[in-house]
Specification:
disordered C terminus; about 50% helix; rod-shaped; alpha+beta; single chain; 12 helices; about 475 residues; eight-stranded antiparallel sheet
Amino acid sequence: MPQAAWGVHRRLAVVLGLWVVFQSLTGFILLFGDPIAHWLHPELTHHGREDRGAAAALAAVRQLYPDEEVGVLATPAVSDGVYVVEVGEHEEVYVDPAGPRINGSRDHDAGFVALVGRLHRRFLFDSLPGGLSGARIVGVLGLAWLILAVSGLTTAVSNRSGRWWRRDPPVLHRTIGVIVVGPLLVVIVTGIRLALPAGTDRIAAAVTRSGQARSDIPPPGVRITSEDRGRAPRDATHVLAALDRRYPDGTVSRLLMPQPGDRIAPVIAGVSVGFDPGRGEHDYGGNTVVFVDQYTAETLWVGRPDALPAVRQAALLWSRPLHTGSVAGEPGRLLWGWLALAVLVLASAGWATRRLRALDTHRRQLRWQRQLRRRRALARSERVHATRTARAARARRRTSRRLRRRRKVQARVRAGTPGLSRDKAEPEADTYGEIEIDLTDRSEIDLTDTVEIDLTDGANAANATPGAGAEDVMRHFPPL
């Protein structure tokens, strides 16, 4: 990988890593949103031992909210022992089946957990200019992170990774990355499917030829309306009892009753039959959709997931349970919670690794700068020493030339002075200023002998005898 491309890859990893950390943190809060709400409001799930029936619970809700449209009812089997009834577009009403008694209500779009959910799913933006939405932004970021994660994993297992990565990251960062990469890819793929359901369904249908059919939508030509027999319809309690007899091994999760005055609408039930990935969730459970006549409680149409191709079943039934970890129940939620925390630790370890590398690079730069300064100082010292050496050599050469010139002058002076000239046939070495003592001479010198010198005598210095003049004697030793 070229150095420039690797730099772009690393910068993109930092940006997307921050987004993944944000999604992990918000997702961790959403995983335990219901337990947090129940912990903050324990009265919502308070219930007795008896069950007066779903009809009584719906009647209590309609009496409390006469002007609101009552929606889906979640059974106590998937709602911590209470009925949860949707009222309007955003509100959930919790009903104690023993009363029935209204425990309280909760707004989907109110509170801290709802705010975190909007941040996690769409960045608080339902729509943006140009047809762009927050959900699409989340989906695109997830797709970019998926490509980055796959490319990083491919790079890690490549034989050429030793050339691309000069240094191994710390053990903690590498170990956590290897552990969480598999579950993280699952969460990313399912998150993209939840953020962009239409686009991902079209791509999956084109690639796998599995189509875009749904198991909860009846095909054309199938009668799903109730036949008005001119009598009172069955209430929710009787419909649930009929479904329990029809599916003894299943669990009725949700029930949608017709609105008062609607004489032809069917009763729609969500029943968990066999292995249901969303079993136990009051807002999602029920892999089998059953349309029931509201007067006879007879089945009009059944939408089974096995009627769809496996890829389509996985897209419809497994996306949300795999994304939230609810496919394995509470242990799955706890495991996914630890995964979110591991991503946070991974990001922290990555930041620490990057920081340590930056500090190490800075220290190596400082070390190199110090070495460069020392080398420059040493080179400057060597240049100064060489300059001084050259100057000293030039000074010695100048002194030598002056000495030679002086000796030549002295030689000419001696040659022109009478009595100082030597025989040209026997040249003598220049002993000017030197006194030679023959230490091998065995003759004895009497240092106590007195020599009388007559300073008034002006005889020739060449035949000087004791008593010669001082001036004639000093001619032999001219001054330096």
